[in-house]
Amino acid sequence: MRARIVAVLALLLVTACSNGSSSGDSDAKTIALFLPESKTTRYEAFDRPLFEAKVKALCADCEILYSNADQDAAKQQQQIEAALTQGADALVLDAVDAGAVAPLVNQAKQKDVPVIAYDRLITGITYEYYVSFNNVRVGEMQGQALLDALTKAGTADKGQIVMINGAPTDPSSADYKKGAHNVLDGKVKIGREFDTPDWSPDKAQQEMEQSITALGRQSIVGVLSANDGMAGGAIAAMKRAGYTTLPPITGQDAELAAVQRILTGEQYMTIYLDIRSEAEKAAELAVALVKGEKPSAPTKVGEIPAFLLDPIPVTADKVKDTIVKDGFYSAADLCTAEVKAACDREGIK
């Protein structure tokens, strides 16, 4: 009899512990982060770790589901569906293809799961927040920097430029392009213009090769590239074509290789985006949403409450007081043997 009582008490104790554990798990909130690709180094090197660290700082028991779509819209759709099936409480979504994810944003809404569009706007549908940079302003800064360089060189009216825009499936690309055209139209001749699938550096290299063949090497006086990866592809094409002096070329994202190219003179400028502020703001909003809070936003894009951060144009003389000062890269990161002389010239130590 005594043994039976002990066994029953043990069973009750196990059941109580199990119920307590289950109750604790049900209170934990899950935030799903979806990033679009890894060819652009910022996503794995900065966006993901900065976002995850901020979530954990604000909500120690919050769980994070992370997915990278590798520039595959169908894969991202599957990742979102899986997160919703697993019971995610909020989605932070940087869309590969804004049109492709819209039905899943609707699906999240039906499940009362809030959505934050991160870095790239999702159009034609409502959701909780949009966190990004002023993308039209990015394009205007790129266009103005290129125009300033051409004016200084006296070549603005002596040749043609090539425009290498971003992916047509990314709504941000249209904003960058609009901003650049706002500045450049009527002031320079655009010899060739491309919308580059997947933001692919390899495709940008092919586009630049086509442009050199069609326009002639001597007639190209500048290149408007929407980001640093594609700028690298365009530069590779120009080097292969035998350019001894490269025309000014723009970029965006302040990738390490691009900042080094800017210091050595191969690339003219980049747009430095304070990714820390962007990732941390998205994390703050996601944590607030899973806690049932809804902070007010300073502006709207269409009907979407939005937080739009300021981009910063960076040429060689600005690297020290922006990218290095903010700790985005250290002098040790930048000033490899090939770049050391350029670093010394700009006072980066």
UniProtKB/TrEMBL annotation:
Keywords: Signal. Residues 1-23 form the signal peptide. It comes from the Bacteria. Residues 31-294 form the Periplasmic binding protein domain. InterPro entries: Bact_Solute-Bind_Prot2 (IPR050555), Peripla_BP_I (IPR028082), SBP_2_dom (IPR025997). It is found in: Cell envelope. Gene3D superfamilies: 3.40.50.2300. Its main location: other. This is Sugar ABC transporter substrate-binding protein. It comes from Cryptosporangium japonicum.
